[in-house]
Amino acid sequence: MYNFFKNKLTSIGDYSLSRYYTGVILVTIIALVIALNIKFLLWLVVGIFYIIAFYEALKLYNIEEKTYLYISSCIIWIIAYFHTNPIYISIVVLVVMASYNAYHQNIKNKDYLVILYPTIPFLCFFSIYKNFGVMAIIWLILSVALADIGAYFGGRAFGKSPLSPVSPKKTLEGALIGLVVSTLIGTMIGIGQKDFISAFFITFFVALISIFGDLYESLLKRTINVKDSGNILPGHGGILDRVDGLLFGSVIMIFLLEWFK
């Protein structure tokens, strides 16, 4: 019995350390890429995340791995570097896929799902950088991170009501606290980009939708009964486990930034 608990505590300690070290490395990489503010470097790093997330999404959707899908993802990301509005690329790809399926009378093909998610959100993220600059990226990342951090600590302190059966550990109280914290602080960050009212609404909806980004990925994982989207990040799981809220937030932010121009 003693050895059992000793082994348990050791494994928990190892997990916590690996999670801590991985988190530090990730934050350092992201901070360095943002600080350097080099288009090619950001495109390259985000592209690596995208390809890994693409692979993880295939598993979550239970889609058979096909060479053409990986080739398509690489072509999409290469074109994204040069195109003024990368989001259009995904629309073209979806039309091509629909045309192919129509020609072959294949209505059961699910390959388009990896274009809807995570491809389009990743393209939205890169579009924000290309069209609105690095400060908009900082605003986005901090708004989503604050919503997540506020929800975690708020949930631990005041959480009682489950947020959703999809993610029973998250609470409604925690989500609301995270939303408030993110909106208040994120709005102050966004004032450098937009007027107060615009910054407030953009931050609010980005923080709100990021909650559902987390729930969506939880739903995918629950559907195939896995804990994480992958294991490339020790202590954190996969890339999608770390960027799910950010991906949903990117879609809303690019939409609202364009709207409030």
**Main sheet makeup:** 2 strands, antiparallel
What is the typical, i.e. mean, pLDDT?
Answer: 90
The number of distinct helices, counting runs of at least 4 residues, comes to: 9
Number of domains: 1
Strand percentage lies at under 5%
- Structural class, from secondary structure content? mainly alpha
C-alpha end-to-end distance: 64 Å
Q: What form results from the Cα inertia axes?
A: globular
Low-confidence stretches are: 1-15
3D structure, described in words:
With 261 residues, the protein is mainly alpha-helical. It has a two-stranded antiparallel ribbon with strand order 1-2. The protein has one domain. The longest helix is centred in the N-terminal third of the chain and has 35 residues, at 2-36. The model is unreliable at 1-15 (pLDDT under 50). It is built from nine helices and two strands; from the N terminus they run ααααααββααα. β1 (162-164) and β2 (167-171) form a beta hairpin.
